[in-house]
Amino acid sequence: MQIDADKQATTESYRRRREEWLLQRNQALAEVRALDAQITAQTHAVSAAQTTLDQTLLANNQALTVYNFIKKRATNAELYGWLLGQFKALHYQAYDAVVSLCLSAQASLSAETGDYDSQIPLPQVWLDNRHGLTAGEHLRGHLLRMEREYLQRYERRLELVKTLSLRQLFDDASDPQAG
């Protein structure tokens, strides 16, 4: 009995050892599969990172190309300074032409009304530091004041009414009943 018991104990210990080894082998195989899956995932991540790096480098090169183009093209501060000078000159020429038209309108108003003494003075509205930006509105206001004064002071009738007799007009020379 003792020998049977020792034999069974030895057999049982071999069986348990075998089951442990099988369990360890299965765990090792599962870990290998998990590591293979992680390696595959990391390979995809590295590939995605490489693609992102390539795209970033390409975008950086394109941005550098655009920057150099913008830096070297004609739209820089020097060009804008030149354009500002051109626009100031054109705006002043237009202002000068409008002032002469306002003076002509004022002279026409004086000639129309016969009143050469009470003229509305033309305001000096050109401001050099503002490049005359509000001059047009001031001159428009001046023209509206002249129009208002003309309409208030010099009212004219729009219709002429005259009553006349046709008989007197034709002097009874051709009296149709006389004949």
UniProtKB/TrEMBL annotation:
Domain Tc toxin complex TcA C-terminal TcB-binding intervals: 38-173
Q: Which domain of life is it from?
A: Bacteria
Record-linked InterPro entries: TcA_TcB_BD
One Pfam family per UniProt:
TcA_TcB_BD
Q: What is this protein called?
A: Insecticidal toxin complex protein TcaB2
Species assigned in the record: Pseudomonas palleroniana
